[in-house]
Design a protein that fits this description.
By secondary structure, the chain is an alpha+beta fold. Among the domains are: 111-186, Dna Ligase, domain 1; 220-378, ATPase, nucleotide binding domain (Nucleotidyltransferase, domain 5). 29% of the residues lie in helices and 28% in strands. It has helices at residues 76-94, 128-142, 187-199, 210-218, 221-226, 258-269, 273-283, 314-337, 361-369, 394-401, and strands at residues 20-27, 31-41, 53-64, 68-69, 72-73, 100-105, 111-120, 147-159, 162-165, 175-186, 203-209, 228-233, 238-244, 247-254, 296-299, 310-313, 348-352, 373-375. The strands form five sheets. It has a five-stranded mixed β-sheet with strand order 3-2-1-6-11, with helices on both faces. A five-stranded mixed β-sheet has the order 14-13-12-17-18, sandwiched between helices. Strand 12 and strand 13 (238-244) form a beta hairpin. Helix 1 (76-94) crosses helix 3 and helix 4 packs across helix 10. It is globular and about 85 Å long.
């Protein structure tokens, strides 16, 4: 059976103290990135104590995305071609063949919900089966109709109403309870992403929400302990993950991102979309100065190349970019106000994703969010190519370190997987699953 046959999305198992090879796949609205790495056991460093393995990147690729809008698949065939191309380029560089990938999810209206579940203890002391039984009941309660669970992170346990228990196993109680943060997504979005991958003769080792894995990549352990919010600013969507006490405590998102700035520019200055994207990349800023109105540039007119190019000032471009960026950060502010992050007045905000690299985003976000803000970049990676060191690679690099944090999540017991031999409608021939865990 495949991951589509199960009620819950696949999740990776805790890593053992041995070397493993992993591949990450980030299917975004503007780019598809694939990374292949070896994870080698290593002692934790001071800033990233939670990481048990060092990441050695051996292959990567980045191509333009097709068939994806706002993090959701809108054209199955086009998206499949793009994924095949991205994985093939990474395989060629790494000189290995990938059988399974870690997959990110940025669409599907990500939502984090704090769930409390409790049950009576029949044996007198709490066992691992009791923990699994109660947390599974909480996950099923959070996953409403049409939703699927991406993460189930226990925040704390309770024994006979007494909270603050860290590890209840073996302790005596009449009633056992658990507080969980459950992150869900639209099941259709997750299933179609899995479908694209499986049509490429690949298995989905695990699925993870984009803001969560971005936080694993860009946050230090101290930031996660003291409280921080990661704002992943993609092309088609903006997603948010808030951390406190070293745990993910809330997640949300909305369908606004860098592509909307590009479309605003195309409409505002009458340029084609490709020229608007290039102008945004080279000259996009949310800051305006006194000389911007006097600095002019020639912009080709959309449509007929024989028409005379129009002259546009830098101030006009900056105003268009700033208005949409302000709208995005105002929506982020409203989401953060409705999350546990509002109770952490000194916690900082870390921006990641391609749209966060516009000039002046830190200053604009600081003013609107009234928080300390910085740009997040992948941490703890010894040798990354220059193009993969920026904020736009926070998600694929975060997927590479995600297996090291699998012990934090509750994972449903896996059913026995069967071999798939031959064709089966949508899926085609899919090989066996790579392994039960790392």
């Amino acid at each position: 059976m495949t991951g589509l046959d199960r009620n819950l999305t696949p999740k990776t198992r805790p890593m053992q103290k041995r070397t493993a090879m992993v591949a990450s796949l980030d299917v975004g609205s503007s780019k598809i990135a694939c990374m292949i790495a070896r994870l080698r056991p290593s002692p934790p460093n001071e800033a990233l104590r939670g990481r048990t393995h060092a990441v050695e990147l051996i292959g990567y690729s980045q191509i333009q995305s097709r068939g994806v809008k706002a993090g959701s698949v809108v054209d199955l065939a086009e998206c499949e071609k793009a994924v095949r191309h991205a994985v093939a380029l990474a395989e060629r560089m790494a000189k290995v063949r990938v059988e399974s990938v870690l997959l990110s999810v940025s669409g599907g209206r990500l939502h984090g919900q704090l769930v409390e579940a409790a049950a009576d203890i029949h044996g007198g002391s709490v066992t691992a089966d009791d923990i699994s039984r109660v947390t599974s009941a909480g996950m099923r309660h959070a996953a409403g109709a049409g939703r699927t669970v991406l993460h189930a992170l226990p925040v704390g346990y309770a024994l006979d109403g007494v909270k603050g228990i860290r590890d209840p196993r073996g302790m005596v109680a009449r009633q056992f309870g658990v507080d969980m943060n459950v992150v869900t997504s639209d099941a259709t979005v997750a299933k179609n992403l899995m479908l694209v991958v499986e049509r490429c003769h690949l298995n989905v080792e695990a699925m993870a929400s984009s803001p969560y894995v971005a936080g694993l990549s860009v946050l230090t352990d101290d930031e996660a302990d003291l409280g921080a919010a990661v704002v992943e600013m993609g092309a088609g969507s903006t997603t948010i993950a808030t951390y406190s006490g070293g745990r993910l405590v809330h997640a949300s998102g909305f369908a606004l991102g860098g592509q909307h700035i590009t479309m605003d520019l195309a409409r505002g200055i009458g340029a084609c979309i490709a020229d608007a994207e290039r102008i945004k990349t080279l000259y996009g800023t949310v800051l305006t100065g006194g000389s911007d109105s006097r600095e002019l540039m020639s912009v080709p007119t959309a449509g007929d190349d024989r028409e005379t190019p129009q002259i546009v000032s830098r101030a006009t471009i900056a105003n268009i970019v700033r208005h949409r960026a302000e709208e995005i950060f105002e929506m982020v502010r409203d989401r953060l106000a409705d999350s546990p992050f509002a109770a952490e007045p000194r916690a900082r905000v870390v921006l990641s994703g391609g749209a966060s690299q516009l000039t002046g985003t830190v200053e604009l976000a600081t003013r609107i969010l009234n928080r300390q803000v910085r740009i997040g970049r992948p941490l703890g990676f010894g040798r990354l190519p220059n193009e993969a060191k920026g904020a736009s690679f926070s998600v694929p690099t975060g997927l590479l370190v995600y297996p090291q944090y699998a012990h934090l999540e509750h994972v449903e017991p896996r059913r026995t997987r069967q071999l798939r031999t031959g064709t089966d409608g949508y899926f085609g021939k899919v090989g066996r699953w790579l392994r039960e865990g790392f």
